[in-house]
Amino acid sequence: MSPVASDDEPIPVHDRTIALVGLMGVGKSTVGRRLAKRLGLPFADGDIEIEAAAGMTVSDIFAQLGESEFRAGEARVLKRLLHAPRMVLATGGGAVLNPETRAELKARAVTVWMRADLETVASRVQRRDTRPLLRGRDPMEALKAMAEVRYPFYACADVIVDVASGAHGEAVDGIVRALEAYWTEAAA
Fold first, then answer.
1. How far apart, in Å, are the Cα atoms of 5 and each of 1, 80, 84, 134?
2. Which residues are noted in the entry as Mg(2+)-binding (predicted)?
3. Residue 136, Cβ neighbours under 10 Å: how many?
4. Whether pLDDT at 181 is above 70
5. Which residues are annotated binding-site positions?
6. pLDDT tens-digit readout, 80-126
7. Which residue numbers belong to the known binding site for ATP?
């Protein structure tokens, strides 16, 4: 069965897109590229796809149109990507806030929560000033507030992998091991 054969047919877990979820700064894009290469799959970065669709940067979308318009565009782009052939997909940290996106992820992807402690994430996100949800805010306080809202959604992921302590290659190894265990259990 093709992973995009029909919206009514369930997609076997081995044929589903691998969607990386988690807070900004956990490494979804960087690790996702490496994971895709390791698995021989295409890679898509949700934020880059949103920018291409909107013809402006994520920061400009937030500044000119607001977060609600960004989230609406994000939902449309992720739905399109989740209906495309199997890939590794790095989602934006807030993608799980949209109920329709959560439903699409559940139906069409194996979700992987890339989990890292907030101190690690805060140190990573302070390196660049490209995160609209952190502008003018203390990164640690902003991340704590995001975690409070988002962690219950991330916790519903099919696979949870702690990625804070090691290099990107170690994160890829951990995700591959967790996916193999998930696929083995699903096949049983």
1. 7, 14, 10, 40
2. 29
3. 5
4. yes
5. 25-30, 47, 71, 93, 131, 150
6. 999 999 999 999 999 999 999 999 999 999 999 999 888 887 776 66
7. 25-30, 131
Residue 153 amino acid letter = F
β-pairing verdict for 109-115 and 88-90: unpaired
* Gyration radius of the chain's alpha carbons: 16
CATH code for position 41: 3.40.50.300
Cβ proximity of 93 and 24 under 8 Å: yes
| Residue range(s) defining the domain that contains residue 102 | 20-187
The mean of the pLDDT values for the chain is 87
Is residue 14 one of the residues assigned to a domain? no
| Higher pLDDT among residues 150 and 9, named by residue | 150
Query: Structure pTM?
Result: 0.89
Inform me whether the pLDDT recorded for 160 exceeds 80: yes
Give yes or no for a contact between 28 and 91, defined as CB atoms under 8 angstroms apart: yes
Binding positions for substrate are: 47, 71, 93, 150
What dihedral do alpha carbons 169, 104, 66, 52 form, nearest 10°?
Answer: 60
